[in-house]
Specification:
Blueprint (H helix, E strand, L loop, with lengths): L1 H20 L3 E3 L12 H6 L3 E2 L3 E5 L7 E4 L1 H6 L9 E2 L3 E5 L4 E6 L5 H5 L2 E7 L15 H24 L2
Parallel strand pairs: 1-3, 2-8
Antiparallel strand pairs: 3-6, 4-5, 4-7, 7-8
Bound molecules: 2-acetamido-2-deoxy-beta-D-glucopyranose (2 copies) and copper (II) ion.
Length: 165
């Protein structure tokens, strides 16, 4: 019984820790991935991207790639000749580190112009997300530290319980 309790507690601790980080990983195109003739604008429309989230582009890397471009490059499907901003792993993980508009296109053939392989998103700053549990009249820094301290305490307690198994 004690073991069961510890395991439940440990899992609970992991969940608390994970939610305190609260970054979302978006698989671009969901099950379809990064592919031809998928409406990525419709896919992105109902999603909120926040600094700290990640985009994952999944595709057959023999068929596609991912290029980070600017607004002009996006509209005109300009494939930059330098290889610098090009991702080719087939499972590219892009951390969204700064707020603002981000543009991605496929640089293979005419996939951008003719086959809709282009994605534009707007990344919001982290401060715009509502606090999970508002703490009244505590300084801003305390608000940031409090959830961390809390998860830490829970994590410690969880580990302690595990030792008792
Ligand atoms: C957009 O990127 C292209 C190269 O990919 C560059 O030539 C152009 O100056 C850039 N435009 C802006 C507005 O930064
Ligand atoms: C590509 O990246 C390297 C280092 O990251 C940089 O030195 C180089 O100037 C870049 N080339 C272009 C064309 O942007
Ligand atoms: Cu492509």
């Amino acid at each position: 019984m004690a073991a069961t309790h510890s395991i439940i507690f440990f899992v609970g601790t992991l969940i608390v820790l994970a939610s305190s980080v609260s970054a979302t990983e978006y698989i671009v195109g969901d099950e379809s991935g990064w592919t031809l003739d998928f409406d990525y604008q419709a896919w992105a429309k109902d999603k909120v991207f926040i600094v700290g989230d990640t985009l994952v582009f999944k595709y057959a890397n023999s068929a596609h790639n991912v290029m980070k471009v600017n607004g002009t490059g996006f509209q005109q499907c300009i494939v930059s000749s330098s290889n610098n901003g090009t991702l080719t792993s087939g499972r590219d993980i892009i951390p969204l580190q700064t707020p603002g508009r981000k543009w991605y296109i496929c640089g293979v053939g005419k996939h951008c112009e003719l086959r809709k392989m282009k994605l534009v998103i707007t990344v919001l700053p982290q401060t715009m997300t509502p606090a999970p549990s508002p703490v009244p009249t505590i300084g801003a820094s305390a608000k940031l530290i409090l959830p961390t301290v809390y998860s830490f305490a829970v994590a410690l307690f969880g580990s302690f319980m595990l030792l008792l198994v």
